[in-house]
Amino acid sequence: MSTTSPDEINAMSPAMRRIFSVLAAVERIGNKLPHPFWLFWILSGVLAVASAVMAAANVSVTLPGTDETQRVQNLLSLDGLTYALDSALENFAGFPPLPVVVTVLMGVAVAERSGLTEAVLRATIVRLPARWVTFAVAFAGTVAHVTFDAAFVILIPMAALAFKAAGRNPVIGVVTAYVSISAGYNASPLVTPSDAIIGSLTTSAAQIVDPNYVVTPTASYFWNAASSVLVAVVVTVMIEFVLNRRPEAESDELADGEPMDLTLSSRDRRAMWQALAVGAAMLAVAFAITLPPGSPLRGESGTLSESIILLNMAVVVSLLFATMGFVYGRQTGSIASLGDLPGLMAEGVRLIAPIVVLFFSISQFLAYFSWTGIGSVVAVDGAALLERLDAPTLVILAILVVVVSAVNLMVTSGSAMWSLIAPVVVPMLMYVDISPEVAQTVYRIGDSCTNAVTPMSAYFILALGYMQQYRRSAGIGTLASYTLPIALVLLVVWTLFFALWYAAGIPLGPGVPVR
Fold it and tell me: Where does the UniProt annotation place the signal sequence (predicted)?
């Protein structure tokens, strides 16, 4: 699919030209920002000054559900400077995305370098009609949430390859995968680890009012499954009918090069099926030893959501891809022996070296943000604002979506933010006959959409790194100019979808009424 020609631009409606003009301006302005590595150090400086001012003004909040007072701490004080130096290595080494990205990529690199990834793409997604590729990738993004944060590392590069193989722009593939995973983070046709984490936090908050209240991981299953289709449709429509027509939508390579040769030799096809069979067998064994009640792999509580396999999905995924890649490589001759694997893994990790450098600066900034306590102040005060409003139910819920979306630009960890505001929001809504499950559902709409926009997300930086492999001039503004319109449209459409769902009285999940 070609980018928009000058004649096509002239034939566009004035409204469409204005939209493209705004997006181009967003890209230009965003790309004038400093390199992300330095941007986060600049933000750290701004944060330090803000913390000094707020600490001098004795700004504080009482954490909901406790008697603990959280005061803003001065990052420019002796304690703050000591913390910054003492914790630097720990902040970096303990940065959650770092081990996930490196671990998963080692396994994925074996599958990719062996040729398995390309073979699977040839046999599946790139055989779809061109426009179905976008929907397939977008829907795959919602399904991939079952692998938790590993979804970003697996799907984004594969989506770029899928688009490139189909003769389409790989930059658009990166955007499609990233925005479907991040903006649709809380929508999936499968029960995900995030469902268990958020549900447990909601349970704790609900028990402030009702000590026996329990929110299960499947509480919003019907809603989540329907939302996954909605997210995929919105992303597809925005990509195909708006963003793919942008004059700037090109990569450094020809966006419309010759499609990849889809022919698989009998040897390659046989090797692919053998590799997939081994992968299926590994998954079958994992399920067989985890699903039975009483299985020691379910964790101390005996629940599936706390099984060691789900909690360590990055390692499982890496082993799965590495094993399948090795089987394929041995059959096709691309891998001679086990001795080849470390080199293949190193090649994969080498590609993300620039991203690892960025992770150092972003990990320090996020650690400083947490230490100062400013994040707690923003979250708790935002929830308190909702409490003071006297408005109809749907209006309150819509305001909650907007507030959460705004706060999410700064506090990017969904579970961290919910742990702060749930003890206020959930009891408050329970007192006006709005269930904890509804509060949780509305929160997750707001928490999802702006994930794709904020450069404070480590995975925004990861996606930018993959985008730069195909468009070297891409910067923060480039990625934001693609994700911003999708996030805004999805926020509106998803909120309206919930309003219709609520009005129709459709259950959120098994045995969970919406009102």
Answer: none
**Cα atoms in the 13 Å half-sphere on the side-chain side of 57:** 10
What are the residues whose beta carbons fall under 8 Å from the beta carbon of 436, sequence distance 6 or more?
Answer: 202, 203, 205, 206, 213, 215, 426, 429, 430
Find out whether 259 and 167 touch, Cβ atoms under 8 Å. Answer: yes
The rounded radius of gyration (Å) of the Cα atoms in the chain is 23
Is residue 129, in this structure, part of any structural domain at all?
Answer: yes
8 and 245 Cβ atoms separated by less than 8 Å = yes
Is residue 94 in some structural domain? no
Give the tokens for residue 328. Answer: 């394929």
Q: Say if 295 falls within a structural domain.
A: no
| Backbone φ, ψ for residue 261 (5° rounding) | -65, 120
Eight-class DSSP state of 333:
T
Q: With DSSP H G I counted as helix, E B as strand and the rest as coil, what are the percentages for the chain, rounded to 5?
A: 70, 0, 30
DSSP 8-state class, residue 246: -
Expressed as residue numbers, the domain containing 480 is 6-86+116-263+352-504
Give me the half-sphere count of Cα atoms (radius 13 Å) on the Cβ side of residue 123: 16
As a three-state string, the secondary structure of 36-96 is HHHHHHHHHHHHHHHHHHHHHCCCEEECCCCCCEEECCCCCCHHHHHHHHHCHHHHHHCCC
In the chain, what is the straight-line distance between the N-terminal and C-terminal CA atoms, in Å?
46
- Domain assignment present for residue 419? The answer is yes
Domains of the chain: total: 1
Per-residue pLDDT of the chain (515 residues; tens, 9 = 90+): 444 444 444 445 566 566 666 656 665 665 676 777 887 898 899 999 999 999 999 998 887 666 788 899 999 999 999 999 999 999 898 877 688 778 877 888 898 888 887 787 677 765 677 768 899 899 988 877 766 666 787 788 888 888 887 778 899 999 999 999 888 777 888 767 677 777 877 887 788 678 888 887 778 889 999 999 999 999 999 998 888 877 655 555 544 444 455 567 889 889 999 999 999 999 899 888 888 877 877 767 666 656 777 677 778 888 988 999 999 999 999 999 999 999 999 987 887 787 788 788 878 887 888 899 887 787 677 667 766 776 777 888 888 888 888 877 766 665 667 766 776 778 777 767 789 999 999 999 988 888 888 877 778 888 988 888 888 888 888 888 888 899 999 999 999 999 999 999 999 988 888 88
Phi, psi for 512 (deg, rounded to 5): -120, 95
Of 439, 416, 414, which Cα lies nearest the Cα of 426?
Answer: 439
